[in-house]
């Protein structure tokens, strides 16, 4: 009989449950020794978030918080953490695949405390925000990402290219997806790269443009691994891209709209989000390159002829909104945007107050986009960095 | 050398460009005969949208509008239509794969009219809304869906199951996707079903729940084709589901949250959207069944024991919002919800003002959801219909 679940998953379960168990056993040891149970967890505050310039990564600093069960201010959070850890542990040993949403439901209940004169009622948590935050605590405390604990999530990332991977019990040929694509699994660390015949990775923000490039045969022509994040990238897509870069040494190019939202998507791939720097160490791709669409592609500058004519600019350009300008000013101050190239890019934007969608480039002809604009920029190293 | 594009696409191009050409040649014939050029296009108004009870479909009635070039009120729309048709035709014969967004850009420009004393300037269109509406006109005028004209779009639908399909130049085994899934192409009419070993289709609204069921081996255990629409279904997912039902005679079950938004998703699969009834004839699956989560699953009724205990209801139920109640009242009046089952369902909702997410069911244990709740309901025919 065919097994219902994969061997890879069973091994991952064993490993994660062991680590989770060992970590929390230390808390129990404290109790056994008559000490107050305390968890020392790396602080996830902004002040403990450091941009490591050498590695090009956001990382957590050395500051730790001590979550003490006997401290009234900490007791609830302490209990929430152990409750969630026990739910995740149960899920691991019982072959479950929870999501963060159902972990919220699994733990949600009221605790009734009968006092001498009064009955107290307290909810374990009221909103998913609370239980999510506890999950992150467990991630930094155990140094296991949620994916390592087989917590699943929705996944938008897709990939095609001349490459075979092993996922679950199958070997999948990503060059044989027809007009469709391979939807990346939520636990990309469990993927094995079996056979790769590619020279670079192109990540496209927009799914529709991914479809166009795929269908036109772009990846076949240029030996590319073609990926879309379908908007803001999720964790699995980021981790998958990082692994292609780190393990296979493939350069990674990011193609987004020419606007601050596109820059932010690039930034999430390259650095991660400031709020979740703990994950950036494994999810970010510090040497991902911003291929375009850049402001100099649109307007040119003293060293470069623009890709658009005056008339095309008139037809294609969208006026920037207040929110775009605000976001651009924020991004301008991020450490990793403080390069000559990016400051130039952002200044052109703030000067012209103009943005452009990739679709405008496709409308000049898909052949222009796929077989001229993108390869020309890659060949000449025309990135913003 | 490997071809960059597929043979299937080249054949589809030939067919669509021929039909497009023939349709618009008739307009030119009118001109040649000295007649005013007129397009007769089925009306897409609400009054010309009919619920065909026998077929269970929304269809366009017999009313047509006459778009006359020599009528001042119609001239702009007439020109927009011919402009768009020529852009789509060019794309077809030039091996392009446009999206509706880049079709908007391709046609966007200003037409300058030099009068004796004054120069007039008129934009072909200002917003995508306008060009999209023209595309729909061309669809109903030519009886070609945009997909037939190789207009691509973003696509969210995923599928796994014991089934082989031919897409493009490849044969793809949907039972060998590992932990990932097959992302459906934007032109699902070009897919061939090669080999199918399945008994039913389960469509899950939420991608995360799809991941859970997939990973737990649900489709393997029950010979299901497992699909997610990842929220509101797009056209390709709807067409793919319809084809599975119509051509392979597989029953289709829809699993959504227990709320009016979930019912609406079911309604889009089953009937299509009221605004776009012209497409429903090919995209809707009139005999799709609403599997759950139903209000009677939550609360039970005189004939049925609920799946949730009193305490589970307390922990899982979400209070309905004003907007939910409003939407429920709208849905209650749709013709295809005027059945005993649906009116009962909607009345319980309006009475309890409560909704529930599928994740709450998963939190009772994925095994409960995958190996008890879903199969039990299918086996006993416990649908809302």
Overview of the molecule:
Two copies of one chain form a homodimer. Chain A has 385 residues and is an alpha+beta fold. Chain A folds into two domains: 7-149, Orthogonal Bundle (Arc Repressor Mutant, subunit A); 158-380, 3-Layer(aba) Sandwich (Dna Topoisomerase Vi A Subunit, Chain: A, domain 2), CATH 3.40.1360.10. Chain A contains 15 helices and 17 strands. In chain A, the strands form six sheets. Chain A has a six-stranded mixed β-sheet with strand order 10-7-13-12-14-15, sandwiched between helices. Chain A has a three-stranded antiparallel β-sheet with strand order 9-8-11, with no helix packed on it. Chain A is globular and about 80 Å long. The termini of chain A are far apart. The interface between A and B is large, with 74 and 74 residues. Strand 10 (181-183) of chain A pairs antiparallel with strand 10 (181-183) of chain B, so a sheet runs across the interface.
> What proportion of the residues of chain A is helical, as a percent range?
40-55%
Tell me the overall shape of chain A.
Answer: globular
Derived from helix and strand composition plus strand pairing, the structural class of chain A reads: alpha+beta
Q: Please give the count of helices of chain A.
A: 15
What's the end-to-end separation of chain A, in Å? 53 Å
Strand content of chain A: 15-25%
User: Biggest sheet of chain A, open or closed, and with what strands and sense?
Assistant: 6 strands, mixed
Largest interface: A-B, 74 and 74 residues
Spans of at least 5 consecutive residues with low confidence of chain A: none
CATH-scheme architecture of the largest domain in chain A: 3-Layer(aba) Sandwich
**Strand tally of chain A, please?**
17
CATH fold description of the largest domain in chain A: Dna Topoisomerase Vi A Subunit, Chain: A, domain 2
Q: Going across the major beta sheet of chain A, what is the strand order? A: 10-7-13-12-14-15
């Amino acid at each position: 009989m065919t097994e219902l679940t994969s061997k890879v998953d069973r091994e991952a379960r064993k490993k994660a449950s062991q680590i989770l168990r060992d970590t929390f056993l230390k808390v129990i040891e404290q109790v056994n020794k008559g000490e107050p149970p305390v968890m020392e967890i790396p602080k996830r505050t902004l002040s403990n978030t450091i941009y490591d310039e050498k590695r090009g990564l956001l990382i957590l600093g050395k500051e730790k918080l001590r979550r003490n069960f006997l401290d009234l201010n900490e007791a609830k959070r302490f209990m929430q953490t152990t409750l969630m850890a026990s739910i995740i542990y149960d899920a691991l040993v019982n072959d479950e695949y929870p999501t963060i949403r159902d972990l919220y439901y699994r733990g949600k209940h009221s605790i009734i405390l009968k006092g001498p004169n009064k009955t107290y009622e307290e909810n374990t948590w009221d909103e998913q925000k609370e239980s999510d935050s506890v999950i992150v605590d467990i991630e930094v405390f155990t140094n296991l990402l949620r994916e390592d604990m087989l917590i699943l999530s929705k996944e938008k990332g897709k990939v095609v290219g001349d490459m075979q991977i092993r996922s679950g019990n199958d070997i999948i040929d990503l060059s044989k997806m027809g007009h469709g694509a391979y939807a990346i699994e939520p636990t990309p660390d469990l993927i094995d790269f079996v056979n790769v015949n590619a020279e670079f990775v192109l990540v496209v923000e927009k799914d529709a443009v991914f479809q166009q490039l795929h269908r036109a045969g772009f990846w076949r022509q240029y030996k590319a691994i073609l990926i879309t994040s379908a908007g803001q990238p999720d964790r699995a897509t980021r981790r998958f891209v990082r692994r292609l870069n780190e393990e296979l040494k493939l350069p990674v190019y990011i193609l987004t709209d020419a606007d601050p939202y596109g820059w932010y998507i690039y930034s999430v791939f390259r650095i991660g989000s400031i709020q979740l720097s703990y994950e950036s160490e494994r999810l970010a791709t510090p040497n991902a390159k911003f291929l375009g669409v850049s402001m100099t592609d649109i307007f040119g500058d003293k060293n470069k002829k623009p890709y658009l004519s005056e008339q095309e600019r008139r037809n294609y350009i969208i006026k920037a909104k207040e929110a775009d300008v605000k976001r651009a000013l924020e991004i301008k101050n991020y450490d990793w945007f403080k390069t000559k190239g990016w400051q130039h890019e952002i200044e052109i934007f703030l000067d012209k107050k103009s943005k452009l969608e990739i679709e405008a480039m496709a409308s000049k002809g898909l052949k222009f986009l796929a077989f001229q604009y993108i390869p020309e920029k890659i060949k000449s190293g025309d990135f913003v960095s």
